[in-house]
Design goal:
Layout (H helix, E strand, L loop, with lengths): L3 E7 L4 H15 L3 E6 L4 H5 L10 E9 L2 E2 L1 H12 L3 H6 L36 E8 L10 H14 L2 E9 L21 H18 L8
Parallel strand pairs: 1-2, 1-3, 3-5, 5-6
Antiparallel strand pairs: 3-4
Bound molecules: flavin mononucleotide (FMN).
The site of flavin mononucleotide (FMN) has 20 residues, from helix 1, strand 3 and strand 5.
Length: about 220
Amino acid sequence: MGKRCLITYSSITGHTEKVALKFKETFEKNGWQCDIFKVRKNAEDILRPPVDIRSYDFVCAGSGLRAHLPYNEILNMLRGFRTGMDPRITLRFRDETIPYISEPIPEIPPHKEPKTDHGKIILGPDSPKAVVFITYAGYEFGPKEADPAALLLALELEHIGFQYIGRFCCPGKYVDDPMPRTFHGDIRNRPDERDLLKAQMFIEEKLEEIAERPSLLN
Ligand SMILES: Cc1cc2nc3c(=O)[nH]c(=O)nc-3n(C[C@H](O)[C@H](O)[C@H](O)COP(=O)(O)O)c2cc1C
């Protein structure tokens, strides 16, 4: 496996960004070349991202949560890579669009016959790898509140051809009150140094897992 990594994420209040930067530092310490791309709410980032996700050996995709879901920016950029089309075409099937993009939506390309746009995907040891990272408040249920968002990002990445090998989730400050009755208690200083150390260890463990070593069976 090569050693090129892309860290891509959306972050409104900066918590997910802290994790992204710690990931980058950890990849680089381990000899990887690492690009980082923050997806913002604009047509350039979402419709014409300046990265070619398929050229990487490892992708980390991250987001904060709003109403249980990852931010639409990162999700829509990944949808664009998955389908090779403007993500608003897919969103139309859900009666949704991207309101801040004003350029016209292209026509849906006609289906090729026989249809080639769906088919079973089998990922294996040679597939490039992906992890997902989420910062969240988790007031009611804690870590499991991050699961749907993490798995949604993971599914998009698997569609693109990356084998999903794990997720890192940690609390990120929500409001300015201590909120002691919540699952994690007072998270006003999260993610903190301990969370970022865990983020570093998470990446180090994943790199150990995928390291190429001579097999006992060879
Ligand atoms: C309007 C709003 C809605 C949120 N909704 C959720 C939610 O549904 N579940 C959750 O666990 N956290 C929720 N959060 C907390 C954020 O996900 C958390 O603060 C996260 O760290 C923000 O990431 P960012 O700083 O990278 O944008 C919400 C925060 C805001 C401001």
